[in-house]
């Protein structure tokens, strides 16, 4: 099976039980009714990005659903947890792109999102033979990647939250969800 569509989603869940916290985050993301299977980081050729609403309408309860997911959890009060998915697509729709997942504690959403996007773009750039300086800031490399004419689009989705003040479990997740 090669997915033809993909959408991004994210969610936060808070509960006294760790697993229930994860379930609530899945509900916020809208993918709790699916049997999720984690896959690695290849964005298939000719796969279209669709809106979350459009993607969710195409899922059925119990469906085996392939995802690239980032997830982080804490029960430490006020501890920041963040989960991000990055995407880099080649200009050539016949080529494949990359997804990356990044999950961390203590990192703000913008930094984590940029990191995930940078990671996906760097993986794609290395497969396309784009020369770049890995020591340059992401914003500089992003311009170089786009200037190469080989990378069409990069983006990310990110979810961040502070641990609940009374020590309940807080789960954040971000996911790229594939549709057949």
Textual characterization of the structure:
- The protein is an alpha+beta fold and 180 residues long.
- The chain has one domain: Pyruvoyl-Dependent Histidine Decarboxylase, Chain B, CATH 3.50.20.
- It is 27% helix and 41% strand.
- It has 4 helices and 9 strands.
- It has helices at residues 18-29, 52-57, 109-128, 138-147, and strands spanning 5-15, 35-38, 42-43, 48-49, 64-74, 80-90, 97-105, 151-162, 169-179.
- The strands form 2 sheets. It has a 5-stranded mixed sheet with strand order 2-5-9-1-4. Strands 3-7-6-8 form a 4-stranded antiparallel sheet, with helices on one face.
- β6 and β7 (97-105) form a beta hairpin.
- α3 (109-128) packs parallel to α4 (138-147).
- The longest helix has 20 residues, at 109-128.
- It is flat and about 50 Å long.
- The model has no long low-confidence stretch (mean pLDDT 95).
């Amino acid at each position: 099976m090669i997915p033809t569509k993909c959408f991004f989603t994210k969610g936060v869940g808070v509960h006294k039980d760790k697993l229930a916290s994860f379930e609530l985050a899945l509900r916020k993301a809208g993918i709790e009714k699916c049997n999720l299977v984690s896959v690695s980081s290849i964005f298939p050729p000719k796969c279209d990005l669709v809106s979350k609403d459009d993607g969710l309408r195409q899922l059925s309860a119990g469906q085996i659903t392939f995802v690239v997911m980032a997830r982080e959890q804490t029960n430490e009060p006020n501890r920041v947890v963040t989960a991000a998915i990055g995407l880099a697509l080649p200009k050539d729709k016949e080529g494949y792109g990359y997804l990356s997942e990044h999950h961390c504690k203590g990192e703000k959403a913008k930094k984590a999102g940029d990191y995930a996007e940078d990671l996906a773009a760097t993986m794609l750039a290395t497969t396309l033979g784009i020369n770049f300086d890995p020591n340059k800031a992401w914003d500089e490399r992003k311009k170089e990647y786009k200037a190469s004419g080989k990378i069409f689009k990069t983006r990310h989705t990110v979810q961040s939250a502070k641990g609940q003040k009374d020590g309940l479990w807080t789960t954040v997740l971000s996911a790229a969800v594939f549709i057949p």
